[in-house]
Amino acid sequence: MRKRFLAVAFCALATQAAAEDAADKAKIEDGATTYENYCATCHGMELRNNTGVAFDLRRLHADEHPRFVNSVLHGKQAMPAWDGTLTTDQVEELWAYVRANANDAKK
Amino acid sequence: MRPLIAALLLGFALPATAMAQSVADLRNDAKTPGDVLTYGMGYNQQRFSPLKQINRKTVKHLVPAWSYSMASNYGEESQALVKDGVIYITSHDKTVAVDALTGKEIWKTTIEYPPETTKTVCCGIVNRGAALYEGRLYRTTLDTHVIALDMKTGKEVWNVKSSDTADGAAMTGAPIVANGVLVNGIAGAEFGVRGFLEGHDLETGKQLWRLYTVPGEGEKGSETWPNGGAKASGGSTWTTGSYDPDLDLVFWGIGNPAPWNPLDRKGDDLYTNSIIAFRPKTGEMVWHYQMSPNDPFDHDGVNALVQADLKIGGKVQKVVMQAGRNGFFYVLDRATGKLLAANNYVKVTWANGIDLKTGRPNWTIDMKSVIESASKISTWPSISGGTNWFPMSYSPLTGLAYVNTLDMGMEYQPLPIEQVQNLKTGQPHYGVKITNIYPESGNRGILKAIDPLSGKAKWQVPFKSANWAGTMATAGGLVFTGALTGEFMAFDSETGKMLWQFQTPSGIIGQPITWERNGKQYVTVTSGTGGVYVLKIPDANLAHVPPGGSLWTFKLMED
């Protein structure tokens, strides 16, 4: 009985973990689309820009989420404020995409 | 006696040199190399100069005369103009007059636009040039103002606003003066703008007419869109047309339909991806020729429209020609719009040629599978096209067009139709999944000397990073252009042999010109990387090219 219970519990956990992975993946993919539509013009496709004029977003660290959100919503230097154009969800998706491709996230 | 002679001389000399130019001066611009008054170095936009002091033999002595800082890290795509020893140059945030011989600034007039303007600028924060006429300089701004400045002082004479940038409109192109009217276009198909051309009164800036490039509901051409054209959008006009004063026709390239995704706009989608001819006084369209009906690939019809007299079948014909974004080199009778030749000048996989009788492309199976079943395909050329906005030149001496061509393809698939059905003006209008395919050769661009009638290259020179600059041909047997890695270069127009190069401080995405003063020939070009390729497309070859705009003038070294 116990063994069976454990097996069921394990399966449930695994399914939950897989679902979370899938949700993260979807979030990153949505972020990639938003990035291509709104950000790539200056920041470059795949977060790479050749001139260095726009900030290299891959340099952002995990603890810089507030800085990121603030800059996106209110603008920074030449970047316009995106508040009112991008939704809160879209900004979070962008963050997921940026973090998934950050320099310090690379294995 | 002496003062009298001086006064007489002055009196006679002034009208010839310092007076504001006339219609005749504009007509003769290509033949009068003392000045460069028009975008394209002549109404025909051949970018060909009869000057030959700098030639195949002497070009090795070409050295910088001066350089001037544009004080900007954005791209410098503008073509300089020259009048009475003064060079006029534009950028996204300023217009400048510089002494042509010394490089000293005479005046600078800055442009301030709201920061949110750039939210709907798809492809680089740039400006491509101005028009000069009767003492005034005319230009457009990113936030769609059309303005006139006094050429002597830089002071604003008038300033009119054309469109709402919140709807996605922007202006980056040079206007032209044709038959007493200032004609300019608009950018913004990537944000669902309904494209147009407009004419402004030179004296006051008052809008005289507006010619929409896609129809309103029920209007002519709306039968080529679903639902009677209710949602027709796109058809930007973001480059600069050429003018034939004898026919009194302006030729202008019309951009891509919106969105890029074609699933919700079945039909030809007129007048997107077309060349149109219209009357500058009224904006009345006289003829049109569509290159890419129902285009899914952003194959904008906006590339340079160069006029020439070509011998076809033993008969000299007045043609207008374009190295199209879609990969075909088009030659049209410019009086009627009749197609005379259309051959591919780069790798093309979306069409098996163009039917000369109907003018329509013969779609490949791949192309049909995109339109009919939203298939994923690999296709050439990429959205960047066989070439792009940076203008080609044409030498009547060699009969060749000099084109910085692109060698890139793409994996392409339209997203499901639901994703593009409810787009609002001002939102991004893409709806496609694209991954670029780069050539195995490692060379993404090739400078080609193309025979307009066959599309075949007489010679070609490959470049790792695609050149994103205009070309210029001269009677000295030279072709000038610039590289994204900063080299300003001269090639033998017959063989393609590189005869000279100079390293400028940044990448070149500008448009070279040449002119003469006091019997000496000069060459002028901007350096300053940017533009859509550099900003968007990762390219390791550009890792060590710093930004920074500057204007350069070269002359032959003196003994």
Plain-language structure description:
The complex is a heterodimer of chains A (107) and B (559). Chain A is mainly α and 107 residues long. Chain A has one domain: Cytochrome c-like domain (Cytochrome Bc1 Complex, Chain D, domain 2). Chain A is built from 3 helices and no strands. In chain A, helix 1 crosses helix 3. Chain A is globular and about 50 Å long. The model of chain A has no long low-confidence stretch (mean pLDDT 87). Chain B is mostly beta strands. In chain B, the strands form 10 sheets. Chain B has a 5-stranded mixed β-sheet, with no helix packed on it. A 4-stranded antiparallel β-sheet of chain B has the order 2-38-37-36, with no helix packed on it. The longest helix of chain B has 16 residues. Chain B is globular, with a radius of gyration of 22 Å.
Describe this structure in a few short sentences.
Chain A is mostly helical and 107 residues long.
Report the helical percentage of chain A.
55-70%
Instruction: Please give the domain count of chain A.
Output: 1
CATH topology of chain A: Cytochrome Bc1 Complex, Chain D, domain 2
Note the run of SSEs of chain A as H and E: HHH
- Structural class of the secondary elements of chain B? mainly beta
Counting DSSP H or I runs of 4 or more residues, the number of helices of chain A is: 3
How many strand segments of chain B? 38
Low-confidence stretches of chain A: none
Task: Calculate the mean pLDDT score of chain B and round it.
Answer: 95
